[in-house]
Structure formats: C-alpha cells, structure tokens
Amino acid sequence: MVMWLKNRFVQKLGGGWLESFGLRTWSNLQFTSLSARKDPEVISLMRGIHAEKRSLLSAFEQYIVYSLAKAQSKKYDGAFAEVGVYKGASAKLICEVKGDKPLLLFDTFEGLPEAAAQDREVHRVGQYAYGLENVQQYLREYENVSYHKGLFPDSAVGVPEQPYAFAHFDVDLYEGTLACLKYFYPKMVHGGVMLSHDYSLLAGVEQAFTEFFADKPEEVIDLPTTQCLVFKL
Ligand SMILES: C[S@@+](CC[C@H](N)C(=O)[O-])C[C@H]1O[C@@H](n2cnc3c(N)ncnc32)[C@H](O)[C@@H]1O
C-alpha cells in the first residue's frame, strides 16, 4: 500500500477526484475510530471541515494538527504560523485552539509554484489554487490572523521577527519546505513544534528535512500518518 502511494505515477493523480475520493473514504474509517475515543465536539468540527471538501489532510492528520496546536497554545508563548493554506482547513483547526495568539498564514493563494528535480515531477504549477478572499471569508470569525500572499519565503520579507511556538508546513515541494525550515527553525521557542504534512509521501519534502537536520541536534520524528514533527531543543 505504502509503495503504491509513493509511486510517482500514482502521486501525479493528486489534486483530482481520485485524491479527494480516496481521502474521504480513508478519513471516514478514521473518524469512526476517533469517534469511539475522542471528544465528540472536536470530531464534529473535523467532520464538518471534511464535509465542506476543504481538507487535504486525513482525519488522523487533522487530529494531530489540532492536538499539537492546542498543547503548544497552553504551554508556550510565541506566535503560530502555517505555510500552505489552500482552502484554510488546517488553518481553521489551529484557529480553534490558538486563543489570542497571532496566526500568520502564508500561501501564494495561486497554487503550487515550480517544482525542483527533487520533487520527481508529481505536481503541476498552479495545482491547489484557491483565492485569498475565500479563505479570509472562511476564517472571518477568528481574531489575530494575518495573511501573507506570495511565494514563501519572499512573502515573509517585512514580517516582524518574533518567536514561534507552532509552525505547520504543507507546501508539497522541496524548495518550499527547505525555505520553511530555514526561516522558522531559528525563530522557534525551545520546545516549539514544527509539523509537516507529506513527509513520508513526497520525496522532496522528506529530502528537505533530511538535509536540513543533518547537522542539527534535533531528531525528525516520523509519525504513522504522512506527517513528521520536530521539537526545537
Ligand atoms: C496541499 S496544499 C495545503 C493544504 C492545506 N494545508 C489543507 O488544510 O488542506 C499546498 C499549498 O501550498 C501552497 N504553496 C506551495 N509552495 C508555496 C510557497 N513556496 N509559498 C507559498 N505557498 C506555497 C500552495 O499554494 C497550496 O495552497
């Protein structure tokens, strides 16, 4: 199954009906499991986001974003950030638990940029394009959320230097992931969490983490979903 999902030709089908059908089916099974053990209100929130067809994260992946952001919000000062917002699904989960902390949302809001050779040609330029105004409307009830449109890290120029407690990366590509790590790693508080989607699915994302942490003291923790996380020491 894993080898099948990691196949380059299968991955090229991403962004279409097959991805959303597969994700919905897989997530429905996961929601059944989560419903037996977790807070019904949280599961209902996540089911709602899936029903709106906004999320590219499975139910378990959504839960991990929610749970980590919640823990970081309770224990640490520092801002929250997400690079790779798309329709705002994972951003909404962070909004639900961040309290009054700032949340900075970075996206081209025009879809994926050019890929590098490390990405093995599985994506298309412009894939996952979704307008900024639609995301602003979707998240309008939450306070202290700022939007940074453009190619990251160029879109971070002018953003004030500040410490971060939680950073979520979901950009699908090698160069974007590496840029996230270079920008956020030195700014994370001790105990801060960097979480990335697609680490064990997309070759470019995994390679960016492997290269960046080769000379750092932190370990990249590979989760049973496609995600990985790093606690800043
Ligand atoms: C897979 S989607 C994000 C999914 C989203 N987190 C969710 O909740 O479903 C990837 C997003 O990353 C954005 N993106 C990729 N590389 C980027 C970069 N270098 N700068 C800004 N946005 C980027 C794309 O525009 C796209 O919206």
How does this model look, in words?
With 233 residues, the chain is an alpha/beta fold. It has one domain: 3-Layer(aba) Sandwich (Rossmann fold), CATH 3.40.50.150. The chain has 9 helices and 7 strands. The chain has helices at residues 2-5, 8-11, 17-35, 40-51, 59-75, 89-97, 132-138, 174-184, 203-212; strands at residues 79-83, 103-107, 145-149, 164-169, 188-196, 221-222, 228-231. It has a 7-stranded mixed β-sheet with strand order 3-2-1-4-5-7-6, with helices on both faces. A hairpin with a 5-residue loop joins strand 6 and strand 7. The chain binds S-adenosylmethionine. Residues 55-57, 84-86, 89-90, 106-108, 111-113, 128, 151-152, 170-173, 176 line the site of S-adenosylmethionine.
Helix content percent band: 25-40%
Major sheet strand order: 3-2-1-4-5-7-6
Major pleated sheet: 7 strands, mixed
The distinct ligands, each listed once, are: S-adenosylmethionine
**Residue ranges: pLDDT <50 for 5 or more in a row?**
none
